[in-house]
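Working notes for the structural subgroup meeting. M.R. asked for a predicted model of this chain before we commit to crystallization trials. I am recording the input and output together here so anyone reviewing the notebook later can reproduce the run.

Input as submitted:
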Amino acid sequence: MRVLVVLAALLALTSGPAQAQGRHRTDPPKSAEPKQPPVDEKAYKAALERIPEPKDKYDPWSGARPAETPKKQK
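Returned structure, recorded in token form:
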């Protein structure tokens, strides 16, 4: 029961300032979006084809495990 009261109090405290900040905004409305140049699909695909293929596969876990598995000694 006590946990619910504490959670309700925290929720009330954290939601109040966020609502108050949203009410007092005086940003001017954006009249026009900045124009972006049109995308040239052929140039985009040609640029992707120029990216070289990696020779070795990328292993993101290479630093987390040893390069070679230790061999058991008999």
